[in-house]
Amino acid sequence: MFKLKTILEVVYSVGSMEKVTHFFCDYGGLDIVDHYETDRTVLDFWNLDAHVTASEKLIRFNNHEAGSIRLIKYHNISQEYSRSSQNPWDIGGIMDINLRVPEVAQTFNDIRELGFHGLSDPLLQKMGPFELYDILMKGYDDIIIAFTHRVKPPLKLPEGYKIPSHVYNSSITVKNLDEAKHFYVDVLGFSLLNEYEVKKDAPIENMFNIPMNMIEDVTCKVNMFSLDGARDVMFQVCEFDGITGKDFTQTAIPPNRGLLLYRCEVEGIEAYYKSLLKTGIEIHQELQNLTIEPYGNALCFSIKSPNGVLWEFLERNN
After folding, report:
1. Of 147, 158, 179, 214, whose CB count within 10 A is highest?
2. What 8-state DSSP symbol labels residue 141?
3. DSSP code per residue over 220-270
4. DSSP conformational letter for 182
């Protein structure tokens, strides 16, 4: 028997540990759990040469373990960008992470001074059952962060923080949504939470920065998932029907810069691993022991989705 628990962390490869830490922690108010040197077992798991080393910081909001962000800085190796000069409709890798903020317009103004820029100005969006102010902003290492303030149904946030949020959601752009749905539900056993479409009926500004003369011909189809069926940490898979972008499937891997992978927790990982083998899925890295702080010794394996997203699954041994 096994139990899929949650996305523990998103791993983010940075060019400047100082700039990214300043944004999340000094500005946003998230906490540094600790600093680590990446264990050799993990670097080998990522197929990196023996001379490569890496330093890490694990950051969280208010001791919320799920939806953490692990910053990693690689040393002694050349790097590309995992999604260089990306647009939201480009496939391959993780497109964005989502963070809640108390006031989207204020966040927009604040972090432009820190070097971020918006794909649009803040807009009121209707997404399935939710109404929210939303802004996609491109930041360090060409990542995109979606900052949201939910209006309906209203959501009260902790006070005193610029970013009172763990990574509660993130986005993956795919070529074929039906293929992705089959992979995440029928193969991996994740839970489908919601399905909806976003389509504009007039040539207006939009959060994705799709040209206004094209926006009426583009439909964004979305499926939302989580590992455990709950909404504490979700991810959404998007297909942009009507526009074609670049394919980052081959570059969204360690040690390249940007959002690299999801690290997920499973209870009964050996049973889960055996169940996946029976489906015929291709295993990226077989089940093995790694040392990942602060979890200590863990059993871990990884797979790669059809559109090039790395998923690591672990179970702590301590």
Report:
1. 147
2. G
3. EEEEEEESSS-SSS-EEEEEEET----B-TTTSSTTSBEEEEEEEEEESHH
4. I
Token pair for 188: 């991996």
What pairing do the DSSP bridges indicate for beta strands 191-199 and 219-226?
antiparallel
CA distance 294 to 299: 14
Largest CA distance in the chain: 56
pLDDT in tens, 143-175: 999 999 999 899 999 999 999 999 999 999 999
- Among residues 239, 209, 253, which one has the least CA distance to residue 85? 209
Q: Whose structure tokens read 């059993």?
A: 299
Token code pair at residue 204: 């207006």
How far is it, in rounded angstroms, from Cα 127 to Cα 152?
10
In whole angstroms, give the CA distance from residue 103 to residue 287: 43
How many angstroms separate the CA atoms of 260 and 95, rounded? 10
Strands of the 3-13 sheet, one edge to the other: 31-37, 53-60, 68-75, 3-13, 258-267, 310-316, 296-304, 283-292
Spatial neighbors of 71 by CB under 8 A, at least 6 apart, are 12, 14, 17, 20, 21, 56, 57, 58, 59
- Which residues are 36's β-sheet partners? 56
Summarised one tens digit per residue, pLDDT across range 184-238 is 999 999 999 999 998 899 999 999 999 999 999 999 999 999 999 999 999 999 9
Give 18's contacts (C-beta < 8 A, 6+ positions apart).
none
d(CA 217, CA 203): 10
Phi then psi for 179, rounded to 5 degrees? -60, -45
296 residue type, one letter: G
Whose tokens are 């083998």? That residue is 277
| Residue 260 DSSP one-character state | E
